[in-house]
Design brief:
single chain; 350 residues; alpha/beta; three-stranded antiparallel sheet; 13 helices; globular
């Protein structure tokens, strides 16, 4: 009987604690709900204008204010550089810590401390508060038909010139994995401000191909050229294939791995595509305000007007909540040490 009373007592305490926490959170949310009224929120995009990251961020910015309590004006601004680490450093150190600056960052900037030896003392991406993620990417390698390359197997014998942004960006990091881990003969020409400029270089013939390009972006830009054969799809850079690409029999790059160890390393590296378009605020933003922004982000991603714009632009909307992103990152940073070291070795000199 005493044991039952003890269990009931403990259960009551737990219930009261949960209730107290819920009430406290509700009060905090209520107190913060008026903060954004009359404010201007900046969507700071860590890439150049016109590329895939820019398109997604501006789409979200056009609708986000409807779902933030107080309906603030949301404007978009670009701050490209260093694989979006310039923008990330600004958010961490210089931007207001009140939730009025949201960063739209490259996925590479989020995994940099995990996969790369270089450490940027200016900021730690793990400490950001994650508001959400816009979609899961299925990255691809594409080439011009006049490159003389018909399949990924060809690039193990014939050099292919690829355009890329900077280390930390997918167009640089993803082909580097193929070059250093699998031995693909890739010449990576980096330094383009963003994917828009890399695509222009491809169209003008300055480079022969691009890797680390999202399938959604490629489909939107090159669908007619893919149909007429002037642009070819070489491979998918992902853990698993996109249904449309699988139907087109576009192979996964990991099918070209020569060992289970190589495949394990590639699977780990490609895990980052599950949060390919992350949105963050600084670590010191009040918790209740982070909660409001997370809720507003997920509501925005279900907005019928946003969905219609995305459909017309031929881009995928497959959101992940900020809470789930934090959990995914925790799991990712707890990956096997030997696999992490294998990836760091690849990028050590880059």
């Amino acid at each position: 009987m005493a044991r039952n009373r003890c269990i009931l007592h403990d259960g009551l305490i737990a219930t009261l604690l949960l209730t107290s926490l819920s009430v406290t959170q509700a009060v905090a949310n209520e107190a913060d709900s008026g903060f954004f009224k009359g404010k201007r929120v900046t969507m700071l995009i860590g890439s150049s204008a016109g590329g895939g990251y820019d398109v997604y961020a501006r789409l979200i910015a056009r609708h986000l204010g409807k779902y933030i309590p107080g309906n603030p004006i949301v404007t978009a601004s670009n701050m490209a550089g260093a694989g979006s680490n310039v923008a990330a450093a600004f958010i961490a150190n210089s931007a207001p810590k009140d939730g009025t600056t949201i960063g739209a960052l490259y996925m590479g900037a989020i995994v940099e401390p995990l996969f790369y030896d270089k450490v940027r003392s200016t900021h730690n991406p793990v400490e950001f508060n994650y508001i959400g993620n816009a979609n899961t990417d299925y990255d691809v390698c594409v080439v011009r038909s006049d490159a003389g390359v018909n399949s990924l197997a060809d690039v193990f014998h014939k050099e292919l010139i690829l355009g890329a942004s900077a280390p930390g960006g997918a167009t640089y990091d993803f082909p580097t994995l193929l070059k250093e881990l699998l031995g693909a003969k890739l010449k990576i020409v980096s330094g383009y401000p963003g994917s828009r400029e890399v695509n222009l270089a491809l169209e003008k013939g300055e480079v022969q191909g691009i890797c680390g390009q999202s399938w959604g972006g490629v489909a939107a830009m090159y669908e007619p050229m893919i149909r007429n054969g002037s642009i070819k799809l070489l491979a998918q850079e992902a853990v698993s294939g996109h249904p449309s690409l699988d139907r087109m029999k576009v192979p996964l790059t990991k099918e070209f791995a020569s060992s289970d160890a190589q495949r394990a390393v590639m699977n780990l590296f490609y895990q980052q595509t599950s949060f390919s378009r992350p949105y963050v605020v600084a670590k010191d933003v009040p918790t209740a305000r982070v909660t409001l922004l997370r809720r507003a982000f997920m509501d925005t991603m279900q907005d019928k007007d946003l969905r219609e714009e995305a459909r017309r632009a031929q881009i995928d909307v497959d959101p992940t909540s900020g809470e789930d992103m934090q959990k995914t990152l925790t799991q990712l940073y707890a990956s096997p040490v030997d696999q992490i070291h294998a990836i760091r070795k690849i990028y050590a000199a880059k």
